[in-house]
Design a protein that fits this description.
Shape: globular
Protein name: Peptide deformylase
Radius of gyration: 15 Å
Number of strands: 6
Keywords: Hydrolase, Iron, Metal-binding, Protein biosynthesis
EC number: 3.5.1.88
Family: Belongs to the polypeptide deformylase family.
Number of helices: 2
Catalytic activity: N-terminal N-formyl-L-methionyl-[peptide] + H2O = N-terminal L-methionyl-[peptide] + formate
Amino acid sequence: MTAPVAWDGPEGKVLPVVTAPATVLSTVGDEVDPADPAVVRLAADLVATMRVSPGCVGLAAPQVGVDAQIFAVDVTGHPKAATTHGAFVLCNAKIIEASRWKAGREGCLSVPDLTGDVKRAGRIVVSATLPGSGEAVEITTDAFEARALQHEIDHCAGKLFLDRVAGAHAIYQRKVYL
């Protein structure tokens, strides 16, 4: 098993986040060439945008208007995180094993006013490549980090968490705390 190393790429710029019903959010992203300098820049921009967004633990290219299969994740310090691999970016990720299914509440920067209960695997193995090096990696993770990875992989496949809820009874107005 290989795990990604913490993101140590170039500094990125903060990009605007698109919200539903933007078409790019329902479009299957194109596979990317991880060695392409534009992909490395996009990876850096995803990390920068994720870091300035309060409560954000993941961000996929479609959320910044790019129909590509690349996303950033960092659940470090989140109270629900059991396992964490730090901040990392994956290209062309695929889930190759999934087990321990459980419902849990999710939110999304691209759906700012709603949350929903989504059934996801509590343990997954993901195969992907790292931007820049193109190194193939396989990540085994669980709990909240597994949920975050599945959420971002869904974005790359043109799906929102709303596409996975059991029905209208499982969608909630986001609470705002002052």
